[in-house]
Input
Amino acid sequence: MRIFFFVLSFFACPSFLTAHHSVTAFFDRATIIEVEGTITEIFWRNPHVFLTLEVIGEEGVTENWELEAGTTNTLMRRGITSNSLGLGDQIKAAGAESRRGEPAIFISNLLLPNGTEVIVSDRDATLRWTTEGTYNQDLDVSDQLSGQGIFKVWGHRELYRLRNPLVLTPIAQDLKAEFNPRTDDPGLRCIPPGMPNAVLNPYPMEFIERDDRIIQRIEEWDATRIIYMGGGVTTPEQFQPDHLGYSVGRFEENSLIIETSQINFPFLDGDGTPMGPNAKIRESYTLSEDESSLFYEVLVEDSDNLLEPAIWEVIWTHRPGVNIMPFECTLRDVVGPVYR
Output
């Protein structure tokens, strides 16, 4: 039986941005619902895990519900593997309901048959039915820091915050209005996003020092980004534009400053905001005194689409013991009802 109740949450605020695909375009994070039923299908791959649940409705009618969770990587870091769930299991789930009324939920909480409650979304969540469970195990931060400056693995507890609402040109407003997330979102076809959206996600990333360059490994989409220090061996004229762009970095005291241009990608974010070929990005990663945090700011200038620069910010946290895992996006054979 379905249980509906209304919850206001900062997660519904438009100042927050999702990556891979825009979850808020399909699900209403301000309305949380619960379902309980039997698992009939499991899709354990990235970008998101999917479960099909057979639910007996209020009038005794059987319904098939689509449950969408976070990535396999997130779930595994929280102690949940493909062996934790099985066909025929009776479970309870809670999460954001579909905006169009489809039998679908973007789930945050899952109650397993053994009574264990697990958090299955990419964001923080509060336990609902128990007082103990696999709650944000992957976000624990150790006091033992490596002393390697920025050259380690980082993650964060909250999504990037857009400092001010986007101010779009009239042409950009029209293009964004034409964007259909069900047909135009590249992420639904396993096409990785360009900058800055490539780093606007809640998954781990790390910096690796390599002679005259820095390698930024981003778990989502298995992205490897090259940041040329002091110009490196490649010039802008030699660079072939791609979705991550041409990035040149420098250190200013305890900050890594990165300037990026030549980005070959049509969207600024996961919500269909257009981005032109002349867009320029400036990032700053500022290391805290104890080397446990990175204060991050990314500024985008795009005169073709933005009347004012777009600025996002967040605090990254050092993640001792966490490794960058393969992402390996895989398309499902059957598209869920919420994305049709």
User: Anything to note?
Assistant: The chain is about 5% helix and 35% strand. The domain at 3-135 is CATH 2.40.50.140 (OB fold (Dihydrolipoamide Acetyltransferase, E2P)).
